[in-house]
Amino acid sequence: MKFASLVLLTSLTATTAFAPPRALSTTTALHSTLQSPPQRTAPAAGHIPEWENRPGLSPEEFMASDLSKPDLGGMWECPLTRWNSEDIDVREAQRMAKQVPGCPLEIRASEKDNAMGARYFAENREMIRSKLLEHGAIWFRGFELMKSVKGNREMHEALGLDPCLDPLHSSGLRKFASERDALYEEVNKPSLRQHYIGLHNESTAKRTAAYAAFVCFQRATEGGGRFLVADGAAILAELDTKVLEKLYNRKIRISVSNLDIPPALPGVVKEGIRGLVDVAVAPKFDMDLEMIYESDGKPGRLQAVETAESPINRHPVTGMPVWFNNAHNHARKLRDRRPCGVPEVGMTEVFYADTMEPLDLEDCMEIKRASEKHITALSMEPGDVLLVDNYRALHGRDVFQGDRFHAVTWFTWDQNEEWRGNERRIVEKNAFNQAINKMMDWLPKDFESNQN
C-alpha cells in the first residue's frame, strides 16, 4: 500500500500562506469543483507602478554572506498569533478603518541616502518604525545597500528587528536562501512560477510573524512576478457591511490539503487512515488541524482543516480592527476562476465555521472585489525592500516567466518579550522541512503542463 507516499504528497502544498500564483495561460490541469468550470481570468490590481529597469548584482555577488557576522540560525520560533477579535462592532470598525493612512508608504533613496548605507536606517530607525505602524507597509525603492544578502541583513539589523522562523517552517515550501542570515527564499521555484498567490497574512490560527522584509535581488528575467500588497484596514472598510457581518458572526475555517481516499473503502479503514494522518502528519505543520471527511462534498476526500477563526482581528499594537485572514488566497471558488495549476492535493477551501459549508460564490466575489481594488502590484527591482506589518498588510505574488530571486526575513516582537515568547528554534522541525523542499526541487520547471 502506498499510503505513506500519499501522506507525504499531501504535505507538499499544505500551507496557509504560500498558495500559488497567476498563470499567463488560461489552460490548466486542475479540475474545478464546479460542473461547468468558469473562465479563468487574471486578478486585477488597483495600482500598478511602472518598472524602472534598475540593474542588480550577479547571483555570486548578491548571495555572498558576511562571514564575520554571527550565525542567526538559532533564531526565535515564530510567535503565537495575537487574537483580539471578540465583541467587534463591524460598522464602527469600518468607520475607523476609513481614517487610516494609505498603504504602502513609498520611500525612495536619494544619492545622499545611498551614500549613508546602513547608517541611513540606523539614524532613521524611530521614524521608519513609526511610519510602519502608521501605514502598514513601507516600500524602500532604489536603495543600493539591499542588493545583496549582506546589505539586506545590515538593513534590518540597523532597524533593530529580531528574526524568527516562518510560521510554517516545518511544513515544506519554506527553504532558506541564507540560513545564517535568517533569510528565506520566496516562492521562486520554477515549478511554482505559473501560479498566482492571492492575498494573505503570513499567519495561521496558531502562529503569526510580527513583521517581514521582502527583498528583490533579481526580478523575473522574462517578465511578471510583481509583488502584491494590500491594506487590511482598507479592505475592511471597503467590504459590503452585510457580508462582513455575516463572515464575522459565522467565523471561517480553512482546509489546507486534500487526501482522496477511495470512497468504497470500509468505514473502519477510512477512520484508521484519518487517525494515522492526524497522529503522524498533522503535528508536523505546527498548526491546530482537524482531519475531516468530505467537507467540500467530494466522496472519500479527507481534508486537514484549521480551527475556527475570525476574519476580523484587532491590531495588537494599535487596536485597529483589520481584515486579517487568507480567504482571498484560499477560497476555492476564487482559485477556480483565476489561473492556477496547483495539484488537487494542495487545493484549499474556506468554510463557514458554524456549518462547514464552503463560502457562497457571492461572498467570495465580494472578497475578491474589495481585496483587488486595494492591491498595489509592486514593480520591485534589485535592492527594493517591502517592510510589512504582518497584522495590517496582506501580501501575494503574481506569476512570472524565466528566473526570479526574491527573499524574505520574518521578525518576532522585539519590543515585547511576552508576545515574543521564549522558544528558540526547534531543531526537530528541520528534517520534515528539508525532505519536502528536496521533493519540490525535483519537480520539473514545466510542472503545470506535466500535470496534463
From TrEMBL:
It comes from Cyclotella cryptica. It holds the Pfam family TauD. Residues 122-405 form the TauD/TfdA-like domain. Residues 1-17 form the signal peptide. The keyword Oxidoreductase applies. This is TauD/TfdA-like domain-containing protein. InterPro entries: AlphaKG_dependent_hydroxylases, TauD-like_sf, TauD/TfdA-like. The keyword RNA-binding does not apply. Keywords: Oxidoreductase, Signal. GO terms for molecular function: oxidoreductase activity. It comes from the Eukaryota. Residues 29-62 are annotated as: Disordered.
